[in-house]
What does this fold into?
Amino acid sequence: MVHGDGAARFVDRDRLVAEFIKWAKVNAPSGKEREIAGLLEQQLRRMGFAVAFDMAHTKTGGDVGNLIARWSGTRAGLPAMFLSTHMDTVLPTEGLRPVIRDGVIFSDGTTILGADDRAALAAYLEAIRVIQERGTACGPVELILTVSEQPGLVGARYLDYSLVTARAGYVFDSSGDVGQIVVKGPYSSRLRWRILGRPAHLGLAPDDGVNAIVIAAEAITAMRLGRVDATTVANVGLIHGGRLPSIIPDIVEMVGEARSVTASGLQAQIDAMTGAVADAARRRAGAVELVIEKKYLGFDYARDHEHVRLAVRAATRIGVTPYFTETLGGADTNIFNEHGLTCITLGNGLRSIHSFEEHISIENLVNTARYAAALIEEFAATPHDPNDPKEAP
It folds into this structure.
């Protein structure tokens, strides 16, 4: 174990705030990350990183692939670790005007702030700077900077994992204050229904029609949506149907989503939602076509897993209190674990994300950088094998 807060104490608050604001102002909504990727490539090369891009954009429909950067570290023979975040924001930040009030960074209310997740990006860069400036002992550090995370972890899904050599790392991308350690993440699936009725003219043959919108309405009414229970959530978020007000609608397309922290909980919710639609269609003499798409698998780490214990030690060393949570929010962490990487999500204090009220405290921003620096040091000091079956999540 590394004693004291090491390089973390040298995080430069003013430099970090300026760095965050600089990156927050770069407009890069999902699918349009080319500008920020180019700027990051330039900066990372100046910091001694080798930079590569994959071809994920040919699958995502975006304008650039995922960015994978590697710095060799300061000591040979120490293990490599990765830090990851996404380059995209859920909405544009064009014209962003940051406002700092009482130690908290907001936008002026006309755009999102983009703290999700430019906060992690800026913090990683500051953490690596202080490691480099102090010559702190560490092995290679890789940055995995993904595209199109916001639409559903799409960039991570199509990441070229052959470009990633580190087998373990961390993703700062959660609303908890720094010190939050997310040990359990959700399973998620998307459901796409095509509900089939029978068209008829309202004035001439109303009794001949089967109203697909009525079937959809009865199905949704029968579903348990929102917070189903402590471990499961569900939603029907898109619905489209009908031709003319005078024609009984024969087709409705409907899209829903379910998430649960257990695979069995997810399956139970899927069964309940699909059953509600099937029952409504049967009562009304309609039909249903259904496609279920797996979005991502969950992850579940024991609190005594070495990767979790390392995160606890790093948090304690910088003077923040570590605490464990589970989440129903997806992150690239889910996909990384599916591909055999050892990875957990950490809180970085994001608030009111995806809204014009989004904000982050400077304290959380600074602590994210300090925590990232401490993780790099702690990882070098207590190497472990994430592929060891004894340490598997």
Summary: The chain has a mean pLDDT of 94. The first strand starts at residue 50 and ends at 53. The radius of gyration is 24 Å.
